[in-house]
Amino acid sequence: MLNVIDNKLFVEDVSFEYLAGVHGTPCYIYSKAALVNEFLDYQDAFKGYSKTTICYSVKANSNLSILKIFNSLGSGFDIVSEGELDRIIKIGADPKKVVFSGVAKSDSEIAKAIEFGICFFNVESFDELLAINRISEDLGTKARVSIRVNPDIDPKTHPYISTGLKTSKFGIAIEDSLDAYIEASKMNNIQVVGIDAHIGSQIFDLQPFEDSLARLENLFYKLRDMGINIQFIDIGGGLGIKYKDDDIPPTKADFASKIIKIMKNINCNLVLEPGRSLVGNAGYLITKVVYEKKSNKKNFLIVDAGMNDILRPSLYSAYHKISKSISSSKNKKVYDIVGPICETGDVLSYDVALNDIKLGENLVIHSAGAYGSVMSSNYNSRPKVPEVLVSGKTSYTIKKKETIDQLLQNEVIIDD
Ligand code: LLP
Fold this sequence. Notes:
- By secondary structure, this protein is of the alpha/beta class.
- It is built from twelve helices and 21 strands.
- It has two domains: about 1-30 and about 280-410, Lyase, Ornithine Decarboxylase, Chain A, domain 1; about 30-280, TIM Barrel, CATH 3.20.20.
- α9 links the parallel β12 (about 230-235) and β13.
- α2 packs parallel to α9, α5 (about 105-115) crosses α6 (about 125-140) and α8 (about 205-225) runs parallel beside α9.
């Protein structure tokens, strides 16, 4: 939801200049209209398959106000920890639309999720099946599970975010999954309800999604022949978004049409777990130019946001577009934009052409809504930055800036 008025960049009806002035920098900014539109686009894309539930993947951005917006639009949630469970309980989510993924669920997490009444666990190992059975027996109930199968599909994305390959830690290999289903269906306190797969993230090619779903379809029929009736197929998340100006990700409608075609044969409930494709392009990080420095090879722009605030460029060499908040057409220079952290890898972007840079001016880091604030850290004892939601002409603080006192409050000085 970007606009340019008099060379100034606006998110909805508020300029980044104003936001930086009022909320300080660095600061995460989200457009409410963009969040809502992305969600409605998904709903619209899947309206041809009424048995679809969108379970927003909370890990992409877990801010309570953002969760509340999706909840009010009818979203369910994909969670991976007790912390995420507490978040969705806090915003009043419907337990029947919650799925719980993750490879290392603890006893207390499992118990709490059963008591909340979630739709199903995505079980990632035989050991986890035993744990869920034991805990649900203690609670005198039956837990609903789906097995996360690893379909051994190459999603053709960054290796760190490929999860459906044989070599990854996720899920149970598809060839072993029949045994897992047989075991699970014999357990007294387990009700088998689903099949799940999540093959990776930031995926542009739709073929791996189709290949993965075809393998799940095959498994669905095998299970039916064995008398195990599957009610849900959960295809995970993973749809890619535009980061570079010339990126052309698949549309939600293209994605939906491929999935719906297969689902119409299977004809059971469909669960989606999108994260990035709902929030990624709705968020920005504003940062201020602190210093400019020239070495004999490079011009550096040193800004006040670092790898502790946005880790993706350092961790995955991920590209985020960076632009001025007030554009200009003169004095173009090429810069490496670097943060304040004492690490060579604290580079937000290499070789960025910017015009007429002045100390103290604000830059906008784009597509920062997913895996931005949630992956930030306190490295170099830097407090976490505030988060702001813009809706029309108004900006709301949806997370206050952390204080140094809060940073230190859990530490204990021992007597020496
Ligand atoms: N479901 C499961 C089981 C997942 O593990 C994930 C993401 C999702 C859904 C949501 O995937 P999405 O629609 O957002 O692609 N930190 C990395 C991304 C890690 C993704 C982890 N799992 C990044 O910054 O690119």
